[in-house]
Amino acid sequence: MPPKRIADDAGRAAVAAALAALTSRDTPAVPLVARAGQPLASREATAATLGARTAEPPASRDIIATAVRYLLQLLADSAEGNTVEIRVPPFGAVQAIQGPRHTRGTPPNVVEMDAATWLALAAGQLAWANAVRAGRVAASGQRADLTDYLPIDWLPATTLPATTLPATTLPATTLPITTLPITTENATSAGSTAAVSGGQCNTGD
Question: What whole-number distance in Å separates Cα of residue 38 and Cα of residue 190?
Answer without folding.
Answer: 79
